[in-house]
Amino acid sequence: MPLQMSAPSALEYFATLVQNDDHFPLLEAAASIAQDEYPDLDLQQVLGDVDQLLSRLKRRIPTDAAPLQRLRTLNQFFFRDLSFGGNVNDYCDPDNSYLNVVLRTRRGIQISLAVLWMELAQGIGLHARGVCFPGHFMVKVNLPKGQVVIDPFTGQSLSREDLSERLEPYKRRSGLIEDFEVPLGLYLQAAPARDIIARMLRNLKEIHRAQEDWQRLIAVQNRLIILLPDAWAEYRDRGIAHAEQGHSELAVDDLETYLVHAQDALDIDVIADRVASLRRAQH
């Protein structure tokens, strides 16, 4: 009898993509996030669309082009010719995080635009990395004469003064002034691929939580827990979403996992009370 091989679920597929930091396919993992909203999405089509853009870009670049010329050609192609940019009209639309939609509409948020831009940059031999800058995802490129930091929302290159200015509100909120001054370079560390996917998912998480869309929130939490299995607060947040959906048993499982592992957390008593009330409701 022939073996019946069932295709992996979208979540199982995501788990295989993110299991190893050494071979972490950032573009594919980012594109796969959209499968929760678009279950029939053909991921290979999305990757193929990016490959086609890369082929078009490569045709514009002489083989002996210097890194700075490559960067300028990329920015002209991406931000001007293709008109990729930030969705200023509907910043909180979940579609801004789904690469299949961003490729079609040419509109997204910083991080989704950055993932596409970095894929093209690396494809033409540039050393490009993402930067988890406070409140605003950036990209940076190391060139022979120094580092260029770019806002993927607009394509603007940012000077040290620009970056320091953007940091001010964050530093004031965090109390990082004068005696607690932190060098700018610390905010410009390259972000690992796992952190980039986590930030994409947490953007969606905040949108769904604000809309009290518990079903979609749970789907995002499932991915976050696969991506970051020791991030115990994600179990708490999924548990609360399950409770809101009336999934008492699943809620208790997640909240108890949180209680066991996050014993120094400030909300332990509140969560313990929530578990107790869920258990009472089960009987």
Description:
The protein is of the alpha+beta class. 55% of the residues lie in helices and 8% in strands. It is built from 12 helices and 6 strands. The protein has helices spanning 10-17, 26-32, 43-58, 67-81, 99-105, 110-123, 160-174, 193-210, 214-227, 232-244, 248-261, 268-282, and strands at 85-86, 107-108, 127-131, 138-143, 146-151, 156-158. The strands form 2 sheets. It has a 4-stranded antiparallel sheet. Strands 1-2 form a two-stranded parallel ribbon. Helix 8 packs antiparallel against helix 9 and helix 9 (214-227) runs antiparallel to helix 10. The longest helix has 18 residues, at 193-210. The termini are far apart. The model has no long low-confidence stretch (mean pLDDT 93).
Strand content: 5-15%
Radius of gyration: 21 Å
Largest sheet: 4 strands, antiparallel
Query: Which of globular, elongated, flat, extended, rod-shaped describes the shape?
Result: globular
> Oligomeric state of the chains?
single chain
The level of helicity is 55-70%
Counting H and I runs of at least 4 residues, what is the number of helices? 12
Q: Give the class from helix and strand content and strand pairing.
A: alpha+beta
Q: Element order, helices and strands?
A: HHHHEHEHEEEEHHHHHH
Q: Between the first and last Cα atoms, what is the distance in angstroms?
A: 47 Å
Spatial strand arrangement across the major sheet: 3-4-5-6
